[in-house]
Amino acid sequence: MSLNKSLKNMGFRKNLKKGEVIFRENDPSDCAYIVGVGAIEICKKTPRGQKVLKVLGDNEIFGEMGLIDGLPRSATARARQDSVVYILTSLEQNLNVLTPAEFVFLENRKPDGVYNHETRKKLYGIIETLERGKRNRSREEKKLYRIFRDANFGILLDKNSRTREKIIHSGKVQILAKFEGEIIAQAVLIEKTASVAATIAAEVVMCKGKVFGEIWATYKLKIAKDAKVKGYVHTPNFIIEQGAVFDGRCSMPNIKRPGPLHRLKEVFRKTG
After folding, report:
1. pLDDT tens digits for 43-79?
2. Rounded to a whole number, what is the largest CA-CA distance in the chain?
3. Residue ranges of the domains in the chain?
C-alpha cells in the first residue's frame, strides 16, 4: 500500500473536489487542518450572501481557533479547486520525529521532482531529520523515509536563483530565467522564459528558450518551436522543430547510448 493510501485510510489525508465543503459555519470544532495541495477558501455568511474572507494555499493551517476557544466554527471552509488537506490533530498523534508541517511538505513532493534552492534545502533538511530520528520514527515516518531516502531532487533555476555559476548535478536542471555559466547534468530543460549563455553537457537537452554557447548532448538535443540557439552543438540526435532557429556549427557523432556523468565531465573538461 502506498503512503498516500495509508494516510487516507487512517484518516490523515482527505482528497477534495472543487467546491466541496470541509466544514460549515457553526459546526462543532473538533480538529484543525493543514493544506497539502490546492487552495481552500474561508467564507462567511453576510446579508448579501457568502463572502470569501481569504484563500489558503500549501502548508497553511486552518480551523485551529475552534480547538483553542472551544467555540463552533466561525466560518465555512471549502475547496476552491481540487485539493488535498490533512487532519492535523490526527496526524500529530502519529508523528514522533517530524512536525505535521514538515511531514506534509515532504509527502507532497516527488523524489525526482525539480525544485528551487530554498525548497531543496528544506526537503533535504527534513530527510536528515528523519535519518537522525531513525530509532523513534513512527510507522508513517518510516514509510515516508523509505520513499525519500535516495531522493535526487532536480535543480530549478528561477528568477530568485543565482544568475552565474557552475552546476554539476546527477539529475535534472530546469531553467526558467536568465543564467550564465556551466552546467553538467543528466538532463537540462531550458524553458521559454529562459535566456542562457553557457556551456552545457548533458545526456538530454530540451530547449524552448534562448541559448548562446555550447551544447554537448550525449543522447539527444531538441530545439522547440520559437526557440533560438546560437553557437556550437555536439549530439548524435538533433531535432529542430519548425519555427526554431539554430545559428552555428553542429557535430553529430555516432553514439548509441548516453554517457554517464563522469563521461560528461570529461567532455566538459575538453571544452573548457
Report:
1. 998 888 889 999 999 888 888 776 666 688 999 999 9
2. 74
3. 1-94, 154-271
Which of 109, 115, 91, 113 has the alpha carbon at shortest distance from 101? 91
Cell readout for 165 is 555559476
- Whole-structure pTM value: 0.73
C-alpha torsion angle, residues 51, 53, 54, 60 (rounded to 10): -120
Instruction: State whether CATH 3.50.50.60 applies to domain 1-94.
Output: no
**Which position has the grid cell 534552492?**
117
Residue 123, C-alpha cell as written in the block:
526537503
Establish how many alpha carbons lie within 13 A of residue 265's alpha carbon, considering only the half-sphere containing its beta carbon: 8
Task: State whether the Cα torsion 219-225-227-230 is positive or negative.
Answer: positive
Return the DSSP state at 71: P
Residues 6+ apart with CB under 8 A from 88: 31, 32, 33, 34, 61, 63, 64, 100
Within 10 angstroms of residue 136's Cβ, the number of other Cβ atoms is 9
Report the Cα–Cα distance between both ends of the chain, in Å, rounded. 49
Query: How far is Cα 7 from Cα 5, in angstroms, rounded to an integer?
Result: 5
